[in-house]
Amino acid sequence: MSPSALSLTQAVEDIRDGRIKSAELVTDCLRRIAATDEAIEAWAFLDPGLAMMQAENADLHRQKGNPTGPLHGVPVGVKDIFDTADMPTEFGSPFWAGHTPRRDAAAVAKLRAAGAVIMGKTVTTEYAYFQPGKTKNPHDPARTPGGSSSGSAAAVATSMVPGAIGSQTNGSVIRPAAFCGVVGFKPTHGLIPRSGALELSRALDHVGVFARTIEDAALLAEVMVGFDEEDLDTRPRARPPFAATAMSEPPLPPRFAFVRSHVWEQAAPVTREAFGELVEVLAEHAAAVDLGERFAGTIDLHRVVMETEMAHNLRRDYDKAGEQLSAVLRGLIERGRTHRAVDYMAALAGIETLNGALDDVFDEYDAVLTPAAPGEAPAIDSTGNPVFCTTWTYLGTPAVSLPLLASEQGLPIGVQLVGRRGNDARLLRTARWLVNYLKDRD
Prior knowledge:
Layout: H1 8-16, H2 22-40, E1 43-46, H3 48-63, E2 75-79, H4 106-113, E3 117-122, H5 150-157, E4 163-168, H6 174-180, E5 183-186, E6 206-211, H7 214-222, H8 242-246, E7 256-258, H9 269-282, E8 286-288, H10 298-313, H11 315-321, H12 327-336, H13 341-364, E9 367-371, H14 387-395, E10 399-406, E11 412-418, H15 424-440
Helix pairs in contact: 2-3, 10-12, 10-13, 10-14
């Protein structure tokens, strides 16, 4: 197996135990990028010399007998909305071309502290919103990789890097993971600090990860969890043992609440059929659950919060950039400026109310089972519909997309699992159980 094909966890172990060097792994990833990225275009910025310098420094650090971190020497892709002191951060917009911050975003700093090699910046849609970037779907270049974390999902899917980070304000981790056929994990809101990342919506922005296995996603997220005084939604906490818990066996077989939700009519026929078969295979482990009418308005509540907060946070760019912003982004900002304060405050208040209403579901079930996207990746002129992610982003619950299903054309269809807020490790353990359960029945 070539080094670039290693899982993130295996690469960490091989470097730690001296079976390979970081420089060998990064060299092979760069070779892989050179061979595949002309067709995929996952990278917004890549400096092979800088990546190799980091890898060689990691090897020298280990050779001197210094302690190593949990990601020592392993390359990670970073979505181009996170500040990097040694690389440009351009937000997918010509208005920010050439912008190089003075320091790293909190998430990037935590990756470096864990020993990771920051491979480069992956493509984002414009301002992490809907205007597509240049990246293509690895399974079919005529289709979208999803957005807004397009490059991160595509880079992991094609083994350019074993892991990458992204963000989600609506469906920007779960959806591209589903379309590209990788694991995407969006932890509980406020678990990973967002300081130094493009702020769209404090109430909705999440940092998420992409990997090829659940264990890899767990490890990558685990090292970034923590308090940051610049992110008021974080708090001091012990580092959660995501990876160890994900690899453990649950005390009892999990139960899944199959939630079609009020947007089920937007699911493609192939998705409806595939989930029907999945629930049938799960048998006594799954049951259909109706969340009721109180959840029917979550799409609109999310929209009010997102448009209002984005209009505020992007107001300076709107005033200065003018026509450099896409029409779709300008339209969102203009809509956001029209929302009434009373409606915005009511939408914010709904987050706690509806999370409380979910308690009855999570008291009986380990996870909600639902599509990650309406179907397979659509044509490349859009980033796809995030509607199956919106409710869970609004509520700030942890969610993971698993590449368990496929269309007749062989294109990935993601299975989304959602957990109770703060129960991220348990959700990952449940996700691994599901993967193994289905594997045993193949």
